[in-house]
Write a structure and sequence with these properties.
The chain is α+β, with helices and mostly antiparallel strands. The protein has one domain: NE0471-like N-terminal domain (NE0471 N-terminal domain-like), CATH 3.30.2020.10. Helices cover 20% and strands 28% of the residues. It contains three helices and six strands.
Length: 94
């Protein structure tokens, strides 16, 4: 799938640079997630945030402790592409 992540690296602040299976590359600023969402609270620690990796089976961005981000959301944040239709409000594809 084009949303599958093939590489990730932590960059400036709370951003990650990701490459997707179809060759798309982008940088996702995750400051808002880290700051506002309890599920990402542990990522406030730069050492934890810097431990980002691609889960070998899920092809998704993950951190220690079972923290992850959906590849579709990450692709939107990193490339500016719209969310898939099934994720958009009012979609009948859900």
């Amino acid at each position: 799938m084009k949303e599958d992540v093939v590489s990730v690296v932590a960059v400036d602040g709370y951003s990650i640079r990701v490459e997707f299976a179809d060759g798309a590359i982008g940088t996702a600023d995750l400051r808002t997630l880290v700051r506002e969402h309890p599920a990402y609270r542990a990522l406030k620690d730069p050492a934890v945030f810097g431990g980002v990796f691609v889960h070998p089976e899920l092809k998704a961005v993950c951190w220690a402790g079972g923290i992850d981000i959906a590849p579709e959301t990450l692709r939107h944040l990193a490339t500016g592409e719209p969310y898939p239709s099934w994720m958009q409000a009012g979609s009948r594809d859900r």
